[in-house]
Amino acid sequence: MMNTFQFDTASLLLALPEIFLLSAIVVVLLLDLFLTKRFKQVTYYLTQASLLITGVLSYNLIGHPETVIFSNSFVLDDMASVFKVFMMGFSMVAMVYSRHYLTQHSLFRGEYFILVLLSILGMMVMVSGYSLLTLYLGLEILSLSLYTLIAIARKRSGAIEAALKYFVLGAIASGLLLYGMSMIYGISGSLNISDISAFASDANLGARETLIINFGLVFLVIGIAFKLGAVPFHMWVPDVYQGSPTSVTMFISTVPKIAAVAMLVRILVDGLGAMHAYWADLFMVLAVLSIALGSVVALMQTNIKRMLAYSTISHVGFIMLGFVTGVVSGYGAAVFYVFVYILISLAAFGIIILLNKEGFEADQISDFKGLSKHSPWFALMMLAVMLSMAGVPPFIGFYSKFFILQQVISAGFITLAVVAVVFAVISAYYYLQIIKSMYFEDADKDITISAPMDIQLVLSINAILILVVGIFPDFWMKLALSLF
Amino acid sequence: MELLSLLIWLPIIGGALVILIGNDRAETAKWVSVAISIVIFVMSLSLYTDFDSTTHLMQFEEKVSWISQFNINYHIGIDGISMPLIILTTFSTILVIIAGWEVITRRTAHYMAAFLMMEGLIIGVFSSLDAILFYAFWEAALIPMLLIIGIWGGDNRVYAAIKFFLYTFLGSVMLLVSLIYMYNKGGSFSILDMHNLSLTAAEQAWIFWAFFVAFAVKVPMFPVHTWLPDAHVQAPTGGSVILAAIMLKMGGYGFFRFSLPITPDASLQFADVVIILSLIAIVYIGFVALVQRDMKKLIAYSSISHMGFVTLGVFALFFILKMGADGDIVSINGGSVEGALLGLEGAMVQMISHGFISAAMFLVVGVLYDRLHSREISTYGGVINSMPKFTGFAVLFAMANAGLPGTSGFVGEFMVILSALQANIWYAVLAATTLIVGAAYTLWMVKRVFWGPITNPAVETLNDINGREFFILATLALAVIIMGLYPQPVIEVIHSSINHLLNQALTSKL
């Protein structure tokens, strides 16, 4: 049963990162109003500072014993803290890349950063959500910020279309999710994850209760699959990726994946872990379809953002495979995969953004032609990124696939593993297309890189990490495993 | 770092250094590259001099924990099977770097760096004793080769490069799945532990075929050989040399290191399939080589045909010996242990010898291609008139390719044929036809390219080989002849390991 609402300062401290970020958003929002055009960069630096401080605050909470606060609606455990630290880190990198893009395309506005911060706040709420209501609220804060973020390029029809499409389909998915939640609430009588878990794992659960839980479960899985972009709920992904300004595409395809996985873990693993046999079957179908469709359809794309959209779909399939296993080490593998995927994706979009010039949107695979001649360094970085996505050692992408495969095979799904690797080989073909453009073809236009030092430096570190973490992946694998 | 680690990482670090030197300072890059490759070669020679050929145990071992989550170690070491292949690698790399000296004018430093890095990665393949380390090197070695074919290759290089990569990638992912399967069963990724892992007949069958796909693509065996002619024709000379001399050996090495010891029962069960495919490669691909108009394609097909001897030699043992009920080795149809050893050792000798001969043949074509930019046989004719020194070498290597006694080409093939004779006379008869077919396609090519009247006026103006080319070809000629006259040193170092392997292959895991 719901307790009466308790409030004490000790529990406030556990939500300090969220509280700080919210205050920072208010400050940045107000300050931005008074900044003249000359000082607009201040908003950017304040954003980075807020992210950094939020990250440090979250980092300090790592190791804190699992505590549920705010009347059982907010949880602080290692998974939440580590996820938040990674979210801040990845967001900071994304903001460095974004700034260059926004400046080049005259989209540099304070609202951009405020919306990003708001969406991150939503994600943090999702990561720490311990009741269906909190999770849903976090999801909506995230989604509404993202819809607006896409539409920030309001003069581009593609962006408006993408925003609208995302909004309409996102609203439907939210509705489905909410419907599933209401089913679970209706039968279990609680919104709280641990109550739901206790209810679902009750050995004396009647047939009627099981039926209703499974009925709700289907809607929950659909809602989550939509947010992750798994086939057949992936329709929005390519259009949104292509239509959005590249910096927004980068953001959407990276950091929110952590939040989506966190929501998945909270609802399906923590809450309905007892029903694993049911949702794992659904996940298996979704995963195989995602890997297959993502790998095959990407072959025909000429727009690199669209291609990466399909590539994301197939990566999501791999992430879901980790949850099919039904063991904590499998979930750990999935989390490791998410982090690796984001690290690689950020670098990929970073290099695309690097090629942008004032008024020139580099979003075709052919825009990479001859890059190895004009900028051998960044061509090498992109080579690492693409091979990493394809899962070729020694780059980090291999180890994330390896980890998932090891778990899948260990759970006895050898056929599943074979299907996954065969499609991984197929997907290698389109990653090779980029390498082909960069290395085997000559440039047909000027592709000199004129980006500022900060993005070049961060991008280089980002890409070098793909190799370095690839050579020493042990720590990160253990970290991902320790979260469960 | 100890010797073996240095051999792996020095070329890789050296390659990175050469990239830093940059294409603008090509001369420096070239000298640094050749210096590094010579240092590596000299260092690798001490693997031979300090090698203890009386034991089959791993030597020069190093073991450091790498990914402790999965008990994966940086575990390297060599035995008689891997040591000669490592020296072959370090030797070929020098030649390749010198061969590209004046020829590669575009992005010279990157070219040299790619070969150095590949050298390190391939030595890593041959010395890994941990399956995941092996797999990482195995796959990573594809990357420089992809770039070498794609950047410095011929007109159709993009197609050839991508086909090469995808073909081998598809082959190796099945290898990965079966390695993980064995880890989940035995709890270790150590290759030596996998040798002792007991597997049921069904498991062995699956794993055998997964291995087979990975290694057969690399060797390459019929019918998964189709990437090789494309890759060879499009690759620059250096790329073809490394591909033929070393990369194909990775497949053969896989059969020695993985298939026979890990899945002995499945190897026995499917030995006939492998032998039939080998014989098809030897005979049919030989005939395919006969009709080629492109010299590089001809040599590529001849490579496939010669590599058929390796797989034939490896799997013939199952028709010569078997393990008796009381644990003694007993013979089938009067075969002897020596016969089975001849097959395995012949396969090893054939791999080394093919490393020299195919490298030499591709370099010969490269010399001609650099001058007239044509690989078509019909472009040439009467080359001897303008390039007598060169023709001398070319004919020697052609003879070696045809398996003339006294050259290394003869030794390996002869050993394998002797062994096949004990297995089944028809195997031997079919394999021996290569001595005729091989001679036919090689000599016919020699006749059309080097002898006869000059039909193309451009041939008349050809300059004979310069000192650099002379050095490369002379080195290889020496290697081919020494190996042909006195193969004993090689056989000596591989003997203990091969003997042990024979026991492993005959010991049932069921």
Largest interface: A-B, 35 and 34 residues
The structural class of chain A is mainly alpha
Radius of gyration of chain B from the CA trace?
Answer: 22 Å
How many distinct beta strands of chain B? 4
Give the class of chain B from helix and strand content and strand pairing: mainly alpha
Quaternary: heterodimer
Low-confidence parts of chain B:
none
Structure description:
The complex is a heterodimer of chains A (484) and B (510). Chain A is mainly alpha-helical and 484 residues long. Chain A is built from 21 helices and two strands. Chain A has one domain. Chain A starts with 8 loop residues before the first helix and ends with a helix. In chain B, strand 3 and strand 4 form a beta hairpin. The model of chain B has no long low-confidence stretch (mean pLDDT 90). Chain B is mainly alpha-helical and 510 residues long. The interface between A and B is medium-sized, with 35 and 34 residues.
Describe the secondary-structure layout.
The complex is a heterodimer of chains A (484) and B (510).
Chain A: H1 9-14, H2 16-34, H3 41-60, E1 67-69, E2 74-76, H4 78-104, H5 110-128, H6 132-150, H7 157-188, H8 193-200, H9 207-228, H10 236-243, H11 246-253, H12 255-271, H13 276-297, H14 304-324, H15 328-354, H16 371-374, H17 376-390, H18 396-410, H19 414-440, H20 453-471, H21 474-482
Antiparallel strand pairs in A: 1-2
Helix pairs in contact in A: 2-3, 2-5, 3-4, 3-5, 4-5, 4-11, 4-12, 4-15, 4-20, 5-6, 5-12, 6-7, 6-12, 7-9, 7-10, 8-12, 9-12, 9-13, 10-11, 10-14, 11-15, 12-15, 13-14, 13-19, 14-15, 14-18, 15-17, 15-18, 15-20, 15-21, 17-19, 17-20, 18-19, 18-20
Chain B: H1 3-21, H2 26-49, E1 59-67, E2 72-78, H3 82-99, H4 108-127, H5 131-140, H6 142-152, H7 157-186, H8 191-196, H9 201-218, H10 227-234, H11 237-262, H12 264-290, H13 295-315, E3 321-323, E4 329-331, H14 337-372, H15 383-386, H16 388-402, H17 408-423, H18 425-449, H19 457-460, H20 467-485, H21 488-506
Antiparallel strand pairs in B: 1-2, 3-4
Helix pairs in contact in B: 1-2, 1-4, 2-3, 2-4, 3-4, 3-11, 3-14, 4-5, 4-6, 4-11, 5-7, 6-7, 7-9, 7-10, 9-11, 9-12, 10-13, 11-13, 11-14, 11-21, 12-13, 12-18, 13-14, 13-17, 13-18, 14-16, 14-17, 14-20, 14-21, 16-18, 16-20, 17-18, 17-20
